[in-house]
Amino acid sequence: MSQTQIPVAVLNQLKSAVSAGDVIEQAEQVEPFVHDFRHLFSGRTPMVVLPDNTAEVANVVRICAEHRIGIVPHGGNTSYCGGATPDASGSQIVLALKRMHRIRKVQPLDYAITVESGCALADVQAAADAVERLFPLSLGSEGSCQIGGNLSTNAGGTAVLRYGMMRDLVLGLEVVLADGRVLDVLKDLRKDNTGYDLRHLFIGSEGTLGIITAACLKLFPKPAGTATAIVAVRDPAAAVQLLASLRTSSGDAVTTFELIPRLAVDLTTRHISGVSDPLDRPHEWYVLVELTSARPEDALESALEGALAQAIDSGLVLDAALASSLRQREALWRMRESVPEAQRHAGGSIKHDVSLPISAIAEFITRAGGWVASHVPDGQLMAYGHLGDGNLHFNIQQRDGADVKVFLARAPTIQRAIHDLVAELRGSFSAEHGIGQLKIAELERYKDPVALALMRELKRALDPLGILNPGKVLRKESRTS
Ligand code: MLT
Ligand code: ZN
C-alpha cells in the first residue's frame, strides 16, 4: 500500500481549494496534528489543510465528499479524548481552523460577539473585556484551545455553575455541512422559535455532523467585584451543604466552587513553582470558592466572610482564608489550574470525568473512594474539580514508586467499576471532556439505547457518506471512509 491512500491528483485539488495553497505535507510539520494532547492516540495523514474562510472550508468538504475522504477538524488540540486525531489509515485529511481567527463583530449593546472557529478562547475573552463585557467560558487551556473546539465538545470549565456550558453561551452558528452547503443560523437573537433549533445538533457533536466555522456568543456584564477564598471543609458532604447555603446567602453570586483534595495540594506544591500550602495546617478536603457581581456596591467579601464564619460555627468548615490581593487570588487559581500538570509530573493517572446529581456526590466519593482504597493499592484517589456542577475529575494517581505500566494496564477494569457506580447513581461517565475515540465503548455501554439509535440515525442523515470526523463519538460504519 502506498504511503497515502488519497490520490495525488485529489491532494492537488485540495491544495488549490485553499488560498495561497495553504496546506502542510512535510512529515515533521504534520507531526503535531497526528497526536492527541495526552499522547493516547497517533494517526497518519497525507495533508493538513488550512482554509482561510468559510467558502474555502466548503470547497474542501465538497472535494472530500466527491472522493469520500474523511475530514478530521482540528482546533487547539487540547482534547482529552482524541477527538481531533486522524486514524492510522492515512486516508483522512486534517482540517485545521487556525487561520480562521477573525473576530467578525463585537456587539456591546447586544451583549454578543461573533467570532470564527479558529479564535483562541483567550482572544475572545480579551475582545469582550475591551468593551467592558465578559465572555465567561474559562478553562485551564484557554490560551491555546479554540472556540471551534469549545463548541464541538461543549466545553465546561470553572464558571459553569453561574454561566452554563458552551452550549448555553451560543446565540447563533455557521456550519459547513457534509455536502458543502453552508448552514447560516448565525443570528444574534435571544428569541427565535422558528422550528427545530439546529444549533444544538452541532454543539457537542465533535465535528461528526458538520464543521462549525463561526459563532455568535453571549456576553455578560463584566464583574465589578470578586471575592475568592480557599476553604477547608469537613468532608465532601459538608462542601455540598456549604455550596447550597452560599448560593442562597450570596444572592446566587457563586461563580466557582471547585473541590480540591489534599493530594492536589501536595502535588501542586511539589511540582509547580509559585504554589504554596494555602492554610496554616493541612486538611483532607478544600474548596476554591469565588463570588462575583456586576454591582460594585455588593459587598462580596463581607458576605463571604460572614457565611464562612457561620459555617465554621456549624462545623462544616474547618478553616478558611480569603484572598486579600490580586496576587493571592492568582496564587489560589494557579494551584487549581495546575492540578492536571502536577499530575503529569507525578506519573500515571487513570482519569474519569464524571457527573452526578450534586446531592449524590458525597455518596459517590465515599463508595467509589472505598472501592479504590481496597482494589487499587498502587494508586491514590485524586477526586477534584467542578463540584458546583456535580462534575468530578475522579482521577486515580499512581503512588510514588509504583510500576506505571502495571498501574495503567488496569485502567479498563478500574474504569468499568467506577463508571458502573456512576450509572447506578444516574450520573454521566463523560461530563465535559466528550467521547472522541476514547470513550466510544463507554457510550455504547451506558447511553440509553434509544438515544444511541437516534444518534446513529442523525449521523446517517447529516453525513450519509460518513466523511465527517469518522470514528469519533460513534464507530465507523462500513460505508464510511
Ligand atoms: C480540569 O478541570 O482541570 C480539566 O478538565 C482537566 C482535567 O480533567 O484534568
Ligand atoms: Zn475540568
The number of distinct helices, counting runs of at least 4 residues, comes to 17
Percent range of helical residues: 25-40%
Beta-strand residue fraction? 15-25%
Output the strand order for the largest sheet.
5-6-10-8-9
Alpha carbon gyration radius: 23 Å
Distance between the termini: 16 Å
Helix-strand category: alpha+beta
- Global shape: globular
* Parts with pLDDT < 50 across at least 5 consecutive residues: none
Which small molecules are bound? D-malate, zinc ion
The overall average pLDDT, rounded, is 96
Number of strands: 19
Largest sheet: 5 strands, antiparallel
Q: What this model shows, in words?
A:
34% of the residues lie in helices and 20% in strands. It is of the alpha+beta class. A 5-stranded antiparallel β-sheet has the order 5-6-10-8-9. It has a 4-stranded mixed β-sheet with strand order 1-2-4-3. Helix 8 (236-249) crosses helix 10 (300-313) and helix 9 (262-271) crosses helix 12. Bound molecules: D-malate and zinc ion. The site of D-malate has 6 residues, from helix 12.
